[in-house]
Structures
1.
Amino acid sequence: MAQYEAVFDTLGLRDWCDAGTGEAPVSMAQLLAQAKGGGTEEAGSGLPFPSLDVLHEACPRIGQTRDLTEGLEQGFLSIRSELKFVLDPITQPLSWMLDGTLFVFESAPWWVMIPALLLVSWLVSRSRSVTGFVAFVLLFFAFIDHYEVAMQTLAIVFVCTGISVLLGVPIGIGMSKSDTAQRSIVPLLDLLQTLPTFVYLIPLIFLFSVTESKLYGIAIILYAIVPVIRLTDLGIRLVDKDVIEAADAFGLTSRQKLARVELPLALPNIMAGVNQTIMMSLAMVVIASLVSAPGLGVLVLRGIRSLDLGVGIVAGLGIVLLAVVLDRVSKAALARVDTQRNTK
Amino acid sequence: MSGQPKVSIRGLYKIFGPDDRAMVPHVQGGMDKATLLDRHGHVLGLQDINVDMQPGEITVIMGLSGSGKSTLIRHLNRLIEPSAGEILVDGTDVMALGDRDLRRLRQKQMSMVFQKFALLPHKTVLENAALPLSVQGADAQTQDREARKWLARVGLDGFEDRYPAQLSGGMQQRVGIARALTANTDIMLMDEAFSALDPLIRTDMQNLLLELQKELQKTIIFITHDLDEALKLADHLVILKDGAVVQQGEPQGILLAPCDPYIEDFVSDINRARVLRVRSVMGPVTDDTFDGDVEAASNLEDLIALSDGDTNHCYRVLEDGAVVGQLDMKDLVKALVPRISGGS
């Protein structure tokens, strides 16, 4: 299989190649074979162009693909303590907020918690049917003894959505004001949105201990912050150019313009972004339970681990129910904003 | 008529493109629009505009779409930056103003009315009308009083608490005018303010504007593509074509002596009897006997009705009670035909 040996010979690199023959780890093919549980197969995929592993065979000085992944890992580990030194204090408040909110949601008696939640949904939606629906769902959770875990999930979603909005709206505003910022942030958002959710967890686990709640907090926020940023940017960019021009013509400062014209007119879009952010943080809650996030996700995970079909399905449907509640409440708020200005 | 102009545009050029200033010498050297686009990829917007706008007059800038009239009006408050030239307001060069002074100019000296109204949809009519004062930081009481006063003046009392979307187009534009009046500026810029309204409402609004103008004596710069509207409102008429001034002056003068086939074309379509006034076609007093007296300000239609179509009549023309000239019906009939009257 050493088809490239001749190439190195003719290039006169043979001596250089043979100079260092360190013991390499395994080749990518061997790693994959290991994962499959089969025996070691002969390397080389048979493709007509060279791969790192094949070149390695011809010239040991050239690294294998495994060296690449190994190098990445070593690189990360070498800056880990510095990274931790910076990130740990910055993210510590997140742990406090999550733990605090979880504590409040768990320890507040139901006769405080349920009326408080109903009041919030009434204030946000101003809709009797939506509030009634929320009451029904909360009582249903209590009825099937899932009240406590549902509250835990809700606490996590509240904190993560809150922080996403707090960070996402200013970032979105910044993006809408500068094309350069938009060009550089959009690929990052694309990355965050497409990166498989488990992949976030890998570097986070290296950085923080699994028992810390900020670990899952960060994972959820990174995943859920994307829509609120995107839609804030879009919303502000879509504000009627004529109205912006009028604001300029009457001598508004850029801050006045933002507060009185751009943000209010972009509000429907921003709210749609918040709605999406809520949905995405709820979706992430199950994966977050892999790294000790409490709530309904734990039950789903248990269903998978010990093949408790019923437990998993009930908890899963519970998440759906929670999603419907949050969606209805936030959509009702959005509709309220919309009708206020478009009533004929 | 004479005296210092309120607003004065001197040698204004606007070229659209990345390197507009460098293109100015080409245009000054006589390069035309097509060549500039072809050879340098820049679009010629305005060239060598020189217009004086007298205080207390309505200056109408007329031209077809693409003639650069909306671009021109936006230079006055620098919503668009010129490529070359200067704009003097009360003798101060607007081009030399810094951000803060420019904002003050926009707040205190120039207000603007827009074709598409450009009201804030999330604010009530009252809040919209009070916008200029709230931007300037006036107290709530003053804002409320002034906004109500001007809303009532444009015929919108009782609508203060509605939202713009609840009003018809004509009423929305009344809010736009009230907003501009609340700013209490000497200069009002009106960018095709009535073009989006249907004909009957447009006539109403024109009358409203003339009525307000009689009372307030502001310096109004009005943009339109409609010659009838221009002739009705203008004290001073500027006709733009392809970014250059073709003719400017007193509207009756332009009507009687168009200096360009383009304007002749324009002028040929209108009802001259309604637009021309006795003052413009009368001659010096030579006769002794007259068939009656007419006011200098009445239009020819009135006179035709008065004479019952008899071309043998000759009338004495009075202005403020004094005799200022005489008008033979034969001259009147000649004035109705553009080509004959062109020479006189």
2.
Amino acid sequence: MNALIKVLLWASYAVSLYFAIFLFLQLLKNKYRPAKKKLTSFPHVTITVPAYNESKTILPTLESLNNLRYPKDKIQVLIVDDGSTDNTPEVVRAYVKNKAHMRLVKKKNGGKGSALNKGLKMAKGEYFSCLDADSEMAPDALANMMSVFDKDVAIVTPAMRVKEPKTFIQRMQRVEYIIQVLLARLISRLDCQYVAPGPGSVYRTGVLRKLGGFDENNLTEDQEIGYRHQLHHYRIRHCNEGLVFTKSPATVKEFYKQRNRWYKGGFANLVQYRKLMFNKEYGDFGVMQMMMNVVRYALCIVALVVTFDIFIMPWMNRLKDLVIIEYDLLPYLERLTLHLDIASIGILQMLVLGVIFAITLYLFWTAHKEMKEGVLHQGFLVFIPYFFLYYLAKSAIVFIVLVELMVGKKQKW
Amino acid sequence: MVVRKISTADYVIAGIITVLVFSLGLSLGIILDNARYKDTEVQIRTQELDYNSLQFQSSYLSTLERERSCPVLQASLKTAIFDLSESLEKVISYGDNGNLANGDFDYLRRRYILDNLRYWLLARETKKMCGLDTVSVLYFYEENCKDCPNQGVLLSHFKNVYGDRLLIFPIDTSVENEPMIKILQGQHNVHVYPSIIVENFKFEGLTTKEELEGLLCRELEC
């Protein structure tokens, strides 16, 4: 192994171990306690559903909004049709008929950000929420999230779950989302949240308008608005009881497309808000979270380099050896013995990786417990690749995104 | 508006625990390195004893009991050479993984080269004396040689094919402080790597699978 890879590897171990221990400490300090606060008054909330060619998925979304346990006269639902070319407007029109709190708004196609801004412009509510047209809110989600607001809080984010995972990749994303909910809960206590997920986040309308609404040209407008709130020192809180179910990509192609957009948007936002980095004025968000956001991408690249060096290269060499011996494998197989020399494994490496793995497993277990889902609910076959392949797959996408950014490839939402 | 705070205590505690984990790992690593070194030394001492025993067996046989005892000597020699090659592989693997201090690694590498050469000589003598059906291959290689890994793969392949009838003695010529290597290189006029000496024939550069197959088959009468 050459020296550079060794340095990268050990730097990654140190950083990963440090952050794993830091998160573990946060978990010990912030045990989960379900919210007990009940709403005594119900503020008026506008929920915007941006929709572009969603005729097949939008009805369950609207149905979930209609079933919210929240006074209907305190909800304004705006379904903003973003110039759909399918029959989304007809489907919505038929559904909202005789529902006074729901309304279809039509506009020219301009992207999700512009649809949200249209809703924001028309919003009558003191609070503003959005819900993607392929997502559903649990009946108590809105009331639970509203109960988290106090005078300092400007955004409350939901606990997102993957809706009815069917394919293998959806099942892995379900596991990923469960972990993300725990991480959101932990960093929320440090005022470090920087994403207000499109499905279900609730904002203060006044603050959102004051900050200029959503960035219509941003690939990840829900992250950008989170960063902007942080920039202006507004508090973002997470609500574990604000359950929102969302449809996740079902195929590798869809998954790749989504993550490619997320990571490109993520890089752009990091560059845009770089002045927050190491900025003590922003407390933990400046000194820790911003750094973690950069380190996360760096670790992805290191993971790829190390995987290539430790796993792929040796296998390529073995293949090369096979060519040299002209595929004459029989003598080798006849004398094949399995002997593992434990002493040749680096003890420091084993210890560091062991601690990281143990903390990850504990976080994994806790996240599932908090979401009331068995650790192996998605099956053992999901559990193993989640730990060993899913992260690498995401790292590969990060790498591709970096290359695309370097060659200046543009991407639409 | 958020009143920002920095969780200094948490960062410091996380840092301390990280340092503790690393320190523990490093300490255990040092203990294990020492154990590895000691283990390798024990192996070397055992191999030296084996060598002395074999040498004595050889001397004894040259005067007495040749027919009855040759098979015993042959078996002992093959086992000893196999053990030597196994422990040499282990030392190289420790060295590659950085599990041994540089000084220790160089010392052990040099010891193994000398042991290899002693066994090579003994194998040649024993073959002459007992008519063993073995072929001894002296394999010269160096660290940055392009074709050496391929030659190594081919020799390992034929080791798998012929088992203990093929005795390979690898000599890493990158070990600079061992005069015996220079003597052998001079004697066999070896300037190109890889080079192999099969019995008394020298082959420079990469010896292909076909060439090696023909050569070994001829020597071993297969």
